Amino acid sequence: MVVPRPGFSICYLFILIIQRTASSSSCVYDVGHGQKIDIRALGNSDGKRPKYDNIPNTSPVKNSLSWNGCFPYSKYDGGSCKGAAACLTSTTTGQSTLIARPSSVKFEPEENVNLLVYHSGETILTVYLTCADIDEDKINSRQDSATIFNIYLQSRCCCPDKCHFSTKSGSLSGGAVFVILLVSVLFTYIVGGALFLKYARGATGTDMIPHRMIWLNVVSYVLDGLRYTLLIIRQRSLNVDYQKI
């Protein structure tokens, strides 16, 4: 049995939460006068499907575009559309090709329309966000060349401060997921380690605590550090001999 290392697991979980938070917050753009556009409201957050699929194409090349605001999605049709912001689906093969990732976007505010410009190698996708007080979104696309794509979206959610992203009812926040994962890792570490020490090494009593001596030393070091800090505060001097503690 392999006993998990809690330090590595906890750090990895912290990284996941930070990445998720950073990704979400970077999708809210300032358009001036204290107003913002929340691009998260223009996407599905489940990663399974784009909010805008099979977008009508006005160019002679009748391939189909799909796009999802902020959150990555994937298509499982044998193509390369994985972790995408936008994909191009061939009407001939039915396979989807990745043309833009969420991380490659740049927001460009203009007077009557706001732009999301995605750069992926030589491929450029520009999404034109037009504020429109309508009940149903209007969207179409145009492919100018093999590497130049345009999507035109009219929506109430393209208007500043009109739409705000919220998690679905009953779903868990990032903090809640982190706590659940942290508790699961600690439980596995303690119980799994105890079972390993008991049946593999015949340990009993307190000897069944995983890395018991390491944790005792950690507690001892923490107490020494607290005592040293208190001495510095009491003497109001940094010239305290640590060896005397």
TrEMBL record:
Location, primary (coarse class): membrane
Membrane topology annotation: Single-pass type I membrane protein
Subcellular location: Preautophagosomal structure membrane
Segments traversing the membrane: 172-197
Keyword Protein transport attached: yes
A Pfam family: ATG27
GO cellular component: Golgi membrane; phagophore assembly site membrane; trans-Golgi network
Domain of life: Eukaryota
GO process terms (BP): protein transport
Keywords (A to Z) from UniProt: Membrane, Protein transport, Signal, Transmembrane, Transmembrane helix, Transport
Residues spanning the signal sequence: 1-24
Protein name from the UniProt record: Cation-dependent mannose-6-phosphate receptor
